[in-house]
Amino acid sequence: MNGDLENSTPLQSMQRIALLGSHLTSTRNKPSHKMAETKSDIHLYTAQTPNGIKVSMLLEELGLPYKVTAIEISKNTQKEPWFLDINPNGRIPALTDTLPDGSPVRLFESGSIMQYLVDRYDTEHKLSYPRGTAEYYEVNSWLFWQMGGLGPMQGQANHFARYAPEKIQYGIDRYQNETRRLYRVMDTQLSKSTSGYLVGDRLTIADIACWGWVAAGSWAGIRMDGLDHLNAWLDKVLTHPGCEKGRHVPSRHTMLDNRNKTEEELDKAAQKTRAWVQQGMKEDAKK
Amino acid sequence: MATKLNPLKPIRVWLTPPGPNPWKVVFLFEELGLNYEIKSFSFADVKKKPFTDVNPNGRVPAIEDPNTGLTLWESGAIYQYIVELYDTDKRLTHEALNDRHLCNQWLHFQMSGQGPYFGQAGWFQHLHPEKIPSAIERYTAEIKRVLGVLDGALAAAKPAAGDGARWLVGGKMTFADMAFVPWDFRLAEVLLQSWDEVWEGLPHARAWHERMVELPSWKRSMEHRARLMDEQGLQWNGVPKGIETFTEYEEKIARGEQ
């Protein structure tokens, strides 16, 4: 096949790749295509966190039936043996499903769960692009950007600003500044978008993956001013009924209310959580 | 070991040599025997044009594939693209839907669990001028936890028929295993421990890692790195030539000279 891709324009090449992609999709996923609209056996293990609501927002947008088990992070349910059987990493979300041949699927990592769900069930490409198109791969860039950058860095900002046993100003600044930088990168991308979404003409798993984190920006102490496109996007995503419904799984989503709170109010709200986060850290250190 | 679909025009990899993430991508190119070229530049220019036109996030690696016209960044997204498009005989992935997504699951775990936390440990251990014990402890504890998760998954994996080797998914080495190598390769340096101490109580993870760094593709990747580090006047650990120890380098950073 050497030379297949030579001397063709990028567009022709992309069409060729799109063809290759659709070939792969049609041969690999045939059984699940038949399944897609008729049946699902999805069970979501989740909590009210930015990573948890990614999956429920997506499931609602896709209109898929699913069972929910709420995991109580404060009681360390995610470290119990039955849950570690599903996710040995002891983190939410996790998801189980059944393949057409009856074999079980057990997945963890919110990003891979989202890729699995659209790969198998979004056959009409309502929230994704066909495998092999440029947009398909660009969505994955932003999805991994969220998984490896926005989530971990904002998570560290949460830790140092809200939960750390001692106040380390350097830690707070390092991660708040990096998160704000990532918000600016996203704001710039949205400013160039005619649709108001991260990639192409539609809401995708990249937007849904980022939404819960940006919605919790105030909680992490990130300034939200001067990010007009990002703030408009926060509201725009919620015009999708599935996103609006899915953000309240397994309990009400309250992060947007923090936008109007003072630093003192936020700090007070963190006190309870701080106690059990630190307890968990002590227990982990003993292991 | 070239795949059936080897691109005629080289895929360009933009990278700065010191950090681990670019070598993840080079390792994959080498293992697949793909036609690629390296565009090496200084870390000081990572958030400047022309690179920010390639990756608006200003981080390496990024690739430009002239065969498709596609520009792509984030090493995880690059992995999925290269494997889907160019590993046509599925040497480093699986055919079945379930196994394919399990590979992706471990790739996401590497991207969100290993990379960021190992990176923060490295920063607080070496590059931050002031020692903050609680921050160092936080991230080194997380490294050990991540290694423990991997060791447990490998212990539960069925040994491969021939050599008894254990892999994360489906009884053979896939891109999911390979993605962990560049950070694990730096563990002694990140944790400031001997190699034996790094892997204490983690026999499966150690054997798994040590199998992969013996691959000619990894050795070639590290030879490229050594050459490109040398070109920029850097020693293997990122310390400029002429400075003997990391402590000396840290003192220089503290004085604001670097």
Automatic annotation (TrEMBL), chain A:
CDD domains: GST_C_YfcG_like (cd10291), GST_N_Ure2p_like (cd03048). PROSITE patterns: GST_CTER, GST_NTER. SUPFAM superfamilies: GST C-terminal domain-like (SSF47616), Thioredoxin-like (SSF52833). Residues 261-287 are annotated as: Disordered. Residues 39-125 form the GST N-terminal domain. Residues 132-264 form the GST C-terminal domain. Residues 261-270 have a biased composition (Basic and acidic residues). Pfam families: GST_C_3 (PF14497), GST_N_2 (PF13409). Belongs to the GST superfamily. PANTHER family: GLUTATHIONE S-TRANSFERASE GSTA, GLUTATHIONE S-TRANSFERASE-RELATED. This is Disulfide-bond oxidoreductase YfcG. It comes from Parachaetomium inaequale. The lineage of its organism: Eukaryota, Fungi, Dikarya, Ascomycota, Pezizomycotina.
Automatic annotation (TrEMBL), chain B:
GO terms for molecular function: glutathione transferase activity. Its EC number is 2.5.1.18. Keywords: Transferase. Transmembrane segments: none annotated. Residues 9-90 form the GST N-terminal domain. PROSITE patterns: GST_CTER, GST_NTER. It catalyses: RX + glutathione = an S-substituted glutathione + a halide anion + H(+). Residues 96-232 form the GST C-terminal domain. Belongs to the GST superfamily. This is glutathione transferase. It comes from Parachaetomium inaequale.
